[in-house]
């Protein structure tokens, strides 16, 4: 019982405290690497933190009384799904709670009844519809490979997930481009500076509210990388290192893709993502269902 | 026996009384009292029989069989007369054919068949009794206020309210009887009664469209009835029994009941509006909203899935199971897609019902313990949330003047309480931690464990489409639009009572679902399958229940407390006119802001999805039956 509490409380607290720190740093590194790819020097490493602190110090401005509530809900449920993930709960529970979080964000944007944010909201919905099948197939793939949805059992298998699920991994990497809001899939909002004021789904958020969205993304990015990590760990003491390396490699790859692609139309997002889901994800599961 | 007699007899008596009540005040009192008594009777029956193991009852003597036979012939005469009157003789012949077959079977083969138990009350039946008794009678109460407004709005529709309430109560009586019956001969009769009731309710307004749609509903359901009748005959001739429970038992112990099972599944598919038979349910929305609510949530379509779920233990990896899996799976996927392109609120609900029933049928077709668990859970959650949604749309329609989701813009400002009820309904339909999602979770597990890879694919794509169309609806009603007045003060108090009651029930069912699972569903399935299992682990269920509580409590403490922030206008590219409703267009002309949702007609157009789904599902059904009949012929 005691060890149970330690196993649940400690990772939860660690995630709560360190995820935004690491996530913020990751955003800083992201901007530096992107800048180097464009032969610029780039902002200081801590720039994302400066931005968020500045947002927090701004005058509170809102278009209605309710959007703060929904945005807070977004942050809350992102954190909760991260906690489920890092306390090694059920992988499907993680995915479902993440969906709940994204509904909060979409509703927040809709509630403003502003043209720009509504278009952003609808695009966000489309993106969610595009990536969700692959995310669910990922969970199913792990279940087929390890006969469980429990994350604690997934990380202690005899072989790493990537051995069973290479196609699923490719599919997941593909949809992470959407989740990290990178080009060519940054339809609903992007992190490009020139779009700061009219920025899709977050158009009507400002000050502390916008800061919440930003912090929520830091949290989200960390545990999305956790999904990548899952593919590379097994009951081998040194495998976490491999997992972290894989996370780093995937993230750098995403930055690279972001910098060499232009945004595409929604038709392209939906059809290409579903095609990848079918070809890489589903075929992988099909093969697995025959050999297992 | 007394309980069964009361549950069936009381609504039937109320129905007859309703025919003679012309006065609105009296009808209101009678309906409210009758609804309360029906609901209480269902609850009392549930409590009394809950503690016991299955209760089996046998009617001594032949009087009931004879009475049912006579009633069947009478029903056939009524159908034939109505069809001839509307110049659709061939539909009438469909009814004559099956009645003739039934009579022949009764007279020629009845003596060789012994019925052990005519009625069975098990835990699944109790769940169905509660759904019918509580939700069904709540809808009749809602109908009081609704029908009053309906006739106030629509002057050219003849006011036939006594008849409307008569049919509604007959419907409830027939549903009670249907879920209680174990003798398939009885169940078949009540099956036909529900078909006729829905036909009468759909045709209530007597417009050309209503007439066409009601007859479509009738012939499709009679087709199912024919399959039901053939199932009884094949089962009776091959095994010498006509009981559902015995059939499942025989099937589990190795006897070949695949053909009658497949025929019964076919009957269930027509009644549950699965593709390619789904058009009757889409056409049913021409009827007044309480009809739709009744058809979609507690009666009619639930009779179809009830039968298929009852058969679940003998389905699985055989033709009958495949039939349910394939038709259900295709329907789930394509109906979810079709819902994306719809802006008519009732149509979205209709497609969502069809797709959810598809998932239920598919789960029942898989036939494993966890799949059957999922199917029953889906039935419960769907009944509560869908009735709530239909009634919300009905009320909104009368006050906003449209059932188009695009016109629900700013419903949150115009009808705040209704918008909250509607949001609860929507969340209940797809969002974690509410019930439907828990069931999808279980469905995923069941699909993987059964090893049907194609079904997994159907499930993940179908549920992402579900997410899309529900959230855009949710977004529409939660938008805060400036300058809207509150218009919900004229909603009748009966409507409020039912709406809020159902909203509370939706939340309650989601919180209490671990109890439902451990208390009723698992024990019921434990009787049928060897060994029970935890489909979703206890700890996860409790986490989900807590999240529901969190979602209910949070808005109560924090909603709308924006603090003392400065209120500003939305971004209209700097051309604001100062009211958020117009912007300055070219030539300085004020242009109203109007926001429209996204329907992706080119990708998910209704027609294309309906054709695609119906053709795929239809071809599969034909192939499976061809294979089955080929097998039968080989045996001879």
Structural class of chain A: mainly alpha
Distance separating the two termini of chain A: 35 Å
Using the alpha-carbon principal axes, give the shape of chain B: globular
Pairing-aware structural class of the strands and helices of chain B? mainly alpha
Summed up, the helix count of chain B is 25
Instruction: Name the helix and strand elements of chain A from N-terminus to C-terminus, one letter apiece.
Output: HHEHHHHHHHHH
Distance between the termini of chain B: 43 Å
Radius of gyration of chain A: 19 Å
- With helices defined by DSSP (H or I, 4 residues minimum), what is the helix count of chain A? 11
- Mean pLDDT value of chain B: 90
What's the overall geometry of chain A? globular
Overall description:
The complex is a heterodimer of chains A (292) and B (636). Chain A is mainly alpha-helical and 292 residues long. Chain A has helices at 2-37, 47-57, 67-86, 91-111, 115-146, 151-154, 161-164, 166-179, 207-230, 239-260, 266-291, and one strand at residues 61-62. Chain A has one domain (2-291). The longest helix of chain A has 36 residues, at 2-37. Chain A is globular, with a radius of gyration of 19 Å. The model of chain A has no long low-confidence stretch (mean pLDDT 91). With 636 residues, chain B is an all-alpha fold. Chain B has a domain at 325-555 and 594-636. At the A-B interface, strand 1, helix 3, helix 4, helix 5 and helix 11 of A face helix 19, helix 20, helix 23 and strand 3 of B.
